[in-house]
Structures are given as structure tokens and as C-alpha cells.
Amino acid sequence: MGTDAAANGLVFSHAQKYIGEQVSLALDRIDPTVIARAVEILLKAGAVFVYGAGRSGIIGRAFAMRLVQVGLTAYVIGESVTPIVRSGDAVFILSGRGESYSSIQAANIVRREGAQLIVVTARPTSKLAHVGTLLIPVDFPEDPARPELAPLGTLFESASLRLTDALIADVMAARGENESSMRRRHAIII
User: How much of the chain is helix, strand and coil, in % rounded to 5?
Assistant: First the structure.
């Protein structure tokens, strides 16, 4: 599209529409019974542990924060104050490719400890997808426009944020929470 198009905001306009449409289509393909099962696992867990590497990890941290705000016990795997996963807990792993060594290593520990494992990945045939208790596939068909408008893992990461925020809405409803009750649990960040 060139620098003139970028200067006029044409690339931005096209990219934001493309990302929004692709993310909506991917999330619409998720079976509602899978979402209901994910919420059930989260609500029954003694604690929820969240993991993701790179930008997926940033999305995971945002999700863990919301889980705490909605009244659940949640930790981010890799933090120094995170305890060991135990049977009765749930682990929520976000991994675009589903092949990262750290994600698979975390999943193996989860299996050994007997916790529930929810896997969100763009590759439902990946190693990580096969070891999960529950798979939430967020996949995108090959598209030649994607590298220019949504490079690397942009679509997966954008979809993961919308997915986890929408899961929070379900958890809120199930627990009878609202924005006011969540605000009382909002961390003081300086």
C-alpha cells in the first residue's frame, strides 16, 4: 500500500477492519458447549493458574487479573509468589502455535499434578492441544492478506483477549458479580 497510504491512515483503517472481522469469525466458530465447560472448570477450581509466553502471556496476565477481580483465586505461572498446581486446580494456557517448549512443559506438570487443563490455541492439532482437558480452538484460515494486516500472532492474541474478557462476563453472571463488586477487588497500582 506504500507510505502515502500509511500517512493517510488507509492501512490502519483496512487493518483494524480486517482484524476485527477475522477475530469475530474465529470466536463465532467456537462451540458454545466448550465455553460452558470452560466456565464450569474455572468456577469449580480451587485456584486458576494462567500461562502464556510472549504476547500471549500479556493476555494471560490480563485474564488472571480479571479472575481475581471476579472473586476467584488466580495466579500467573512464572511469578515468584505462584504456588504449586494441585489436583482440584485449573490451568489456563494460551499458545498460538501450541508448540512452545515452556507451554508443553507447564502442561506436563499440570497432568502430573492432576489439575484440569484448558488450552487456547490457534492450532487444534498441536502437541499442547492434545494434552488439554478442554481445547478452545481459536484458529484462522490461511489468508494472503494476513501477514501485511495482522503480522505474526496478532489475530490469535486479539482473539484471546476478546475470548477471555467474554469468559469473564460468563463467570460474573454465574457468580452474581457486577462491576461494583469487582471494583472492590481491583488492585491498587501505583
Answer: 55, 15, 35
Q: Give this prediction's pTM.
A: 0.91
Q: Count structural domains, the chain.
A: 1
21 annotated active-site: no
Instruction: Specify the CATH number for the domain of residue 78.
Output: 3.40.50.10490
Among candidate residues 79, 148, 157, 177, the one labeled active-site is: 157
Residues 73, 175: contact at Cβ < 8 Å? no
109 C-beta neighbours (distance < 10 Å), count: 15
| Number of neighbouring beta carbons within 10 Å of residue 176 | 8
**Rounded Cα gap, residues 9 and 97, in angstroms:** 31
Mean pLDDT by 10 residues, the chain (190 residues): 64 95 98 98 98 96 96 95 95 95 93 96 95 96 93 96 98 94 77
